[in-house]
Amino acid sequence: MIVIVDERELVKGGFSSLFSREGVASAGFLPGEFDEWIDTAAQPDLKAVSAVLIGECGEHDLSPRRIRDRTAAPVIALSEQHSLENTLKLFEAGVDDVIRKPVHIREILARVCAIRRRGADEANYAEVGSMRIYMDGRDPEIDGAPLPLPRRERRILEYLATNSGRRVTKAQVFNAIYGVFDEDVEENVVESHISKLRKKLRDKMGFDPIESKRFLGYRLATQAA
């Protein structure tokens, strides 16, 4: 989930709409609302955050270092002032990157992926058995051949690959794909997406690579059980 902090409703709504088109969950906050949320949010909600984008906050001063005390997600400033002085000021404040507007939404996602990759010292893909699962929006490959997937199914597979070796619950998958604030979508939709994804993977691989256990959740497997 991408968190957008900006005092302008139009900006928050615009970014949320663009992220949704890419199949990425997002949530918009006013600066004061975000301050309260980041201080009180439960750890499972904070773990669902993949990046914090800070836009125009008026007189409200948000501290990137304070945000980082609560979450390891990259903190990125969206700047409308194209000056070296402002850029250096933002980096000195502790942001991980400064992106000048206007910017394409895919560039933001690519920068988030690059920052997280550097922090984890890992490639932008995960290999699970015969699958290569990219983390930058590309379709996965099985034995070198691309497997086109709808964006929600692709995001679920990416999330499972990110947590390779660990089980994730239906709630964790839902929060990662739809965001912790989406009350218009039922959590059970995850089961439908995973069912469709499993069938496509099973048809290509000859076995179901997504293990599921009641109450424990889902995990990617490298070979047939």
TrEMBL record:
GO terms for biological process: regulation of DNA-templated transcription. Residues 1-116 form the Response regulatory domain. Residues 123-222 form the OmpR/PhoB-type domain. The keyword Protease does not apply. GO terms for cellular component: cytosol; protein-DNA complex. Keywords: DNA-binding, Transcription, Transcription regulation. This is DNA-binding response regulator, OmpR family, contains REC and winged-helix (WHTH) domain.
